[in-house]
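Now for today's protein:

——
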Amino acid sequence: MAAPGTIQIFVPLKVRKKNGRPKILPPDDYLPSEDHTQDPHILRAIGRAWAWRRRMEAGEFGTVRDLAIAVNLAERHVSRQLRLAYLAPEVLKRLVFGREVSAVTVMQLSECAGLPWPDQAGVVFGARN
């Protein structure tokens, strides 16, 4: 029993093993909050694009085709994702550090990377500049 004046909180979680490691699973009826959560696919794609950019700038790969072969992905996909490394600093700051929710998908975000930097924030975040 708990000592007087203490509060016990029970959180209904399940622990399952996945790949030999314990993984905590939320309850079946749990719905994540939609408020101020960034799409993990966007964050992962931005991180991957920056890693690829660094590898190309370091001279590890001469062309996008060489990079695509090395990472075992289609050249078109790699070139589209690589554009995310050239987003405006303002957009990157709001997406990655501020975790602001974007109004676009990863595909639309990569297309937006070709726009001038002042125009990107309006497209990515909609009317919420």
Q: What stands out?
A: The beta strands are 14-18, 21-25.
